[in-house]
Amino acid sequence: MRLLPESLRLLFFFLFVMGVAPAPALTAGCPYRCVCDEQLVVQCAGQDLTRFPNDLPLATRQLIISNNLIGDLPALQLNYLSDLVYLDCSNNSLTEISESTFGNLRKLAYLDLSFNTLLQIEDRTFGPLASLVMLRLTDNPSLGEIHPDAFSENLALQVLDVSRNNLTSLNISSLIALPALRSLGLSGNPWRCDCDTEDLCLWVQIEGYKFQASVNEEDAASQDFSPPPELAYLQSPESEELVASSNNGSDSAVSATVKA
Ligand SMILES: *[C@@H]1O[C@H](CO)[C@@H](O)[C@H](O)[C@H]1NC(C)=O
Ligand SMILES: *[C@@H]1O[C@H](CO)[C@@H](O)[C@H](O)[C@H]1NC(C)=O
Ligand SMILES: *[C@@H]1O[C@H](CO)[C@@H](O)[C@H](O)[C@H]1NC(C)=O
Ligand SMILES: *[C@@H]1O[C@H](CO)[C@@H](O)[C@H](O)[C@H]1NC(C)=O
Fold first, then answer.
1. Number of C-beta neighbours around residue 129 at 10 A
2. Which domains does the chain have, with CATH numbers?
3. Which of 147, 88, 101 is nearest to 120 (CA)?
4. Residue span of the signal peptide, if any (predicted)?
5. Cα(202)–Cα(253) distance, rounded to whole angstroms?
6. Among 121, 123, 173, which is best to mutate for testing ligand 3, by the most ligand atoms less than 8 A from CB?
7. Along the chain (260 residues), what's the average pLDDT of each consecutive run of 10 residues?
8. 2, 34, 45, 211: which has the fewest Cβ within 10 Å?
9. pTM, full prediction
């Protein structure tokens, strides 16, 4: 049977409306091995997943894919989730993230990339994340480089933890200019301090012995995070973490205090 162009258009329209078309925008199920609830939380932790889950509900607000073997965060699939507030990717096999990875996640407030195998963080990787409040980037044993401007656009960032990586230096000139930053976790990195002019080294020299303190995992894990409007409950970081106070972003006048 030969369809007229009008009928074809109608057919496509119905396919589209009925959700029969395989467009990701219309999938409404729950991914294989994941549990989805009415609060738009998708829980896929510890399922031996080797790939980012398919067919995520578009309205997902919290996505937990921790404790899997996922090696890649596909930008296209991830960025359909424009309402995502909370993303836990900890304890996977991620080796690479870039500016396009999080390109459309403007509501994301919490991001956990700890316990992965990231090698470096490039410029603007977190640039699109205008609402990011807490970023956990710990325990990536080969992470040796973070671009000076990697976080410079994250004006909402309050807590950044880069503990237990392989960092020898960190240019903090853009970090100390972040208006909301109140905690920076630095412990357990092989800091190289032959650089009197760098702010970070100033901190290390002032508070050097405290940098080697290992953060209590239990306490770190129990730092619950609630998405907005519960952001106010964001718990204080551990005592080993440095709190930076800057003299209006001036490089020369950095002071460091350690929370009691
Ligand atoms: C990572 O996930 C694996 C598999 O679920 C688990 O056995 C292991 O304890 C987890 N490691 C951490 C540090 O959470
Ligand atoms: C950490 O970095 C050093 C070079 O600074 C390198 O030799 C070493 O292999 C790195 N460690 C890991 C686990 O990648
Ligand atoms: C730190 O980064 C800023 C901005 O990219 C740059 O202007 C400055 O020279 C860097 N400082 C050092 C010590 O590398
Ligand atoms: C930063 O600059 C503003 C305006 O120039 C000033 O009101 C404020 O006191 C300064 N803050 C510090 C910590 O110096």
1. 24
2. 29-211 (3.80.10.10)
3. 147
4. 1-19
5. 10
6. 173
7. 52 45 52 93 97 94 98 95 97 94 95 98 93 97 94 93 92 84 87 63 50 36 39 34 34 29
8. 2
9. 0.72
